[in-house]
């Protein structure tokens, strides 16, 4: 394939695209990016294009702040004429957002091969919108690039070896990005000095299952407040979570800041003592930068982190959060283990795409 249309729209997808787009350029693959607009703020979108030097989108759809059905439907409708006009050899989508599903569906309906990067992940929790998006996207895809062995096994259990598809274990493109930008982040980010940070825990909260229920969100904040009494907690706060905390006057004792760019985020991860998060990407980045992680969910798609003792799942329960904190804060682990491809995931995927 020589011409690819990439469809993206949410923060983690910009970081994945940074790794893959660079490889496309090196191989001479023509890439046209469509930004659906799902994330649109300067600090949730533009900052990543600027810092990570991602090619400017050829099309901007500006579709956001809608219900799941309306957003996915509007994207589907807007993508169809673009794909008819661009006539790509393949359409590339990342991860599990509404932009992923809309992109895959628009392409599949036009008989354009769908390439899914980060295929095969499952939480086995159908209440998550992400789980629905990833199951359907995988089923519509022609080329499935799986980050882990467990992702391959998930697809095999669902019978994918009987379909006319290519299943490739390529590793995790987020590790490529983390390794590539780590040195640049040291040079460009001054967040540690600017905020006078020393010993601290880094936390992020944004997942819908944690923000949809006020009770669950309050429990998580209560747990973080308690940990903050032992070790200062810093939270770059997702806009959705910030709005809910303000709307319901939830008492917050830890420090919150606006979402940060990727260079600042890398420095926060590198300098923290421990990470607490409900983010998929941040769980892995904690591992990449040698930090233990407490995951504020009941399940994870990144099961190898839990199996190898780097990550503990606590849901939203403050007591479990505290127990995991006490256990992990003193633990030493060898993080020098290859779970995610060691920085070659984008290269493997791009070479494969060019050859097919
Ligand atoms: N991230 C960032 N700034 C922040 C919070 C997160 O750059 O303030 C990055 C983080 O390092 C990771 C990605 O955004 O690379 C994760 O995105 P998010 O947590 O929104 O989505 P998920 O990974 O859960 O799909």
Task: Describe this structure as you would to a colleague.
Helix content is 49%, strand content 15%. It has 356 residues and is of the alpha/beta class. Helix 14 links the parallel strand 12 and strand 13. Uridine-5'-diphosphate (UDP) binds next to helix 1, helix 12 and helix 13.
End-to-end C-alpha gap: 6 Å
Strand order of the largest sheet: 3-2-1-4-5-6-7
Number of helices: 16
Cofactors and ligands: uridine-5'-diphosphate
Bulk shape: globular
Task: Name the structural class.
Answer: alpha/beta
**Backbone CA Rg:** 20 Å
Percent of residues in beta strands = 5-15%
Helical proportion? 40-55%
Main β-sheet, in a few words? 7 strands, parallel
Give start-end ranges of low-pLDDT stretches.
none
Mean pLDDT: 97
Oligomer: single chain
Please give the number of β-strands: 13
Topology:
Elements: E1 3-8, H1 11-27, E2 30-35, H2 42-52, E3 59-60, H3 68-86, E4 90-94, H4 98-109, E5 114-117, H5 129-140, E6 143-146, H6 149-157, E7 166-169, H7 173-188, H8 191-194, E8 201-204, H9 208-211, H10 214-228, E9 233-236, H11 239-247, E10 255-257, H12 262-271, E11 274-277, H13 280-288, E12 293-295, H14 303-307, E13 311-313, H15 318-329, H16 345-355
Helix pairs in contact: 1-2, 1-7, 1-16, 3-4, 4-5, 7-12, 7-13, 10-15
The structure holds uridine-5'-diphosphate.
């Amino acid at each position: 394939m020589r011409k690819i249309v990439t469809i993206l729209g949410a923060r983690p997808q910009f970081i994945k695209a940074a790794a893959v787009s660079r490889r496309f350029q090196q191989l001479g693959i023509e890439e046209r990016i469509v930004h659906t607009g799902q994330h649109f703020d300067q600090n949730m979108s533009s900052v990543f294009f600027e810092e990570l030097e991602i090619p400017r989108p050829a099309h901007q759809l500006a579709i956001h702040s809608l219900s799941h059905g309306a957003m996915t439907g509007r994207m589907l409708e807007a993508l169809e004429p673009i794909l008819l006009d661009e006539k790509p050899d393949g359409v590339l989508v990342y991860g599990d957002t509404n932009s992923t599903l809309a992109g895959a569906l628009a392409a599949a309906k036009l008989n354009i091969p769908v390439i899914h990067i980060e295929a095969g992940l499952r939480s086995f929790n159908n209440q998550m919108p992400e789980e629905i998006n990833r199951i359907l996207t995988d089923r519509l895809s022609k080329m499935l690039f799986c980050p882990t062995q467990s992702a391959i096994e998930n697809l095999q259990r669902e019978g994918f070896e009987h379909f006319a598809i290519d299943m490739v274990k390529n590793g995790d493109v987020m590790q490529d990005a983390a390794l590539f930008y780590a040195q640049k982040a040291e040079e460009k980010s001054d967040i540690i000095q600017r905020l006078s940070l020393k010993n601290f825990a880094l936390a992020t909260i944004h997942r819908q299952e944690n923000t949809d229920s006020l009770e669950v969100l309050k429990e998580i904040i209560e747990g973080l407040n308690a940990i903050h009494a032992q070790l200062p907690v810093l939270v770059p706060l997702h806009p959705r979570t910030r709005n809910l905390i303000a709307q319901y006057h939830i008492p917050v004792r830890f420090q919150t800041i606006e979402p940060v760019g990727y260079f600042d985020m890398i420095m926060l991860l590198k300098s923290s003592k421990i990470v607490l998060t409900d983010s998929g990407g941040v769980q892995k980045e904690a591992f990449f930068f040698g930090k233990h992680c407490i995951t504020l969910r009941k399940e994870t798609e990144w099961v190898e982190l839990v199996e190898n003792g780097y990550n503990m799942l606590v849901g939203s329960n403050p007591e479990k959060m505290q127990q995991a904190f006490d256990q992990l804060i003193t633990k030493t682990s060898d993080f020098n283990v290859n779970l995610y491809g060691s920085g070659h995931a984008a290269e493997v995927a791009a070479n494969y795409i060019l050859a097919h």
